[in-house]
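Table 4 source record.
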Amino acid sequence: MPVEPHTAGEKSETSAVGIRPYGRLTKRAEFLAVRQGEKRRGRLFLLEVLDRGDAGEPRVGFTVTKKVGNAVTRNRIRRRLKEAVRTHAADDMADGNDYVIVGRRDILNVPFGELKAELSRRISRKSRA
């Protein structure tokens, strides 16, 4: 059975039903641009939001600073955040927005359900607190 190759830059469709796709922020300039937007601080993470002014799909970037711990710790935090966005919070994201989520160490100590609820609450909030 022939298999079509996956080319660079091409989006693969998610196999999970009902999960909204979202784009990724990959360039440093994109992350820096989002820093100019709204900041929503929380115990588990900092969420930075920028309205791009278009109707494109939401884009998300994940970052964890070296102050949090070694590479293993930072990657665990990043993986938990990515899964929470993929399975729960992507539906709450507004079209035309860029999001940067800066993870904190406390993410490793909370149940995954609490992380998903906090992320959804921060993303869907319209006004700054």
